[in-house]
From TrEMBL:
UniProt keyword list: Transferase
Pfam families with a match to the protein in the record: CoA_trans
SUPFAM superfamilies: NagB/RpiA/CoA transferase-like
Organism: Paracraurococcus lichenis
Source organism superkingdom: Bacteria
Family matches, as NCBIfam families: pcaI_scoA_fam
Name this polypeptide is given: 3-oxoacid CoA-transferase subunit A
The keyword Transferase belongs to this UniProt entry's keyword annotation: yes
Length: 232
């Protein structure tokens, strides 16, 4: 019987190695698997490469740093691959001090590199970034009179996913804008671990509302929140 639910955070985080590339979705705090990131902090892996849309939120007096900032501040992240690094943030301080490597990529290119990894596409050409620092050291080719940059797929060793609902086969559904990077990251990693707010029985999720099929998911940890709402 297939049952991808794990019983504890320790079981969910088991086997994540030092030096892993971690795919971390979320747009701001929406769709971010914060509980799993807290579990990664407790698990202890270090030397990580973190692929994330934004490498940590702004410093705000009186507001504690989020899990991304704490993971960086603990010295556990070697590199961030991201759309932007805020100057007034933990990541910004670490990059400025030379303690954290940052690869900054246009947001659409970041998403497409991840999607390409999940689709089995090794590389693609895009006009985004041509003629800028983004193109340095990369192959250029002209298509329809436009210079294009060769970008390679961006797979991960581990994807930490935030889902609204899951069944025991690992089928996932997301809620509204909580989808963001979650579906493409779930497909692009060797090990995909999801935190799910609600549990559905097999067959309870309408087929056309399953955003990530269970074939891409290895582990699911149920972290209850709120009242369940089935997609219509």
């Amino acid at each position: 019987m297939i049952d991808k639910f794990v019983r504890s955070m320790a079981e969910a985080m088991d086997g994540i190695r030092d030096g892993s590339t971690i795919l971390m979705p979320g747009f701001g705090e929406v769709g971010a698997p914060n509980a799993l990131l807290e579990g990664l902090i407790e698990q202890g892996a270090t030397g990580l490469t973190l692929v994330i849309n934004s490498a940590g939120r702004l410093r705000v007096p009186g507001r504690p740093p989020n899990a991304v900032a704490r993971l960086i501040d603990l010295g556990r992240v070697r590199k961030v691959i991201t759309s932007f690094v805020r100057a007034n943030s933990v990541a910004g301080d670490w990059v400025r001090d030379g303690k954290l490597e940052a690869e900054v990529i246009p947001q659409g290119t970041l998403a497409e590199r991840i999607r390409a990894a999940g689709a089995g596409i090794p590389a693609f050409f895009t006009p985004t970034g041509a003629g800028t620092l983004v193109a340095e050291g990369k192959e250029l080719r002209e298509y329809n009179g436009r210079p294009c940059v060769l970008e390679e797929a961006l797979p991960g060793d581990v994807a930490l996913i935030e889902a609204w609902m899951a069944d025991r086969w690992g089928n996932l559904t997301y809620r509204e804008s909580g989808q963001n990077f979650n579906p493409i990251m779930a497909m692009a990693a060797k090990l995909t671990i999801a935190q799910a707010h609600h549990v559905a029985d097999l067959g309870q999720l309408p087929a056309n509302h399953i955003h990530t099929p269970g074939i891409f998911v290895d582990r699911v940890l149920h972290l209850p929140v709120g009242d369940p709402e089935l997609p219509r």
